[in-house]
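G., the chain you wanted modeled:
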Amino acid sequence: MSQSCRIPFPGRRVGLLGGSFNPAHRGHRLISVEAMKRLNLDAVWWLVSPQNPLKPSKGMEKLEKRFDSAIEVAAHPRIWVNNLESEMGTQYSVDTIAKIQQRFSDRRFVWLIGADNLKQMPDWRRWEKIFNSIPVAVFTRPSYSHRALGGLAAERFRKARLKERQSSLLADTAPPAWVFLHTPLEPISSTEIRSRRKQRKARKKA
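Predicted structure as tokens:
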């Protein structure tokens, strides 16, 4: 399993997009490109997780296959697909973030998540520490945005929320700090892609 490009040079402003990428799809790329543009980032790192602790292992493709699909979909000189979680031996986002910040202390990081993750964040291990250790950018997801903004995480850190027009300042703002970004919606999801693949296989067998 090879990495798609060299690590960007020191001092860059970097967005971190973690996930199973099972499989990677154009929605991941859309979020990354929007993040670079609206948050004034120099690069986005895709952290391909060996196994999301909140997702079942059944139906999860092998890490190598998910990694390769991410490289194929990313197709951007400023998106770095990597297996840092596997290298560092971390399973939970809070630990991954801490180790990345320690290892790459000369960079400014922003944690990138979808509105669905914001809604589910109270289920994450030490989720409040994530908000207190790194700026967070939340992106619109179909059917999740309203519920996410009314959820526990958004309410708990309500005073730390930046206005959308201030999004370019996020990387330079000390945590806790977060912003909700309305972006062009991409209806496809990894779950839907897997479902379509199963349907195609079933039709071929019929």
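The chain has one domain: 13-205.

Shout if anything looks off.
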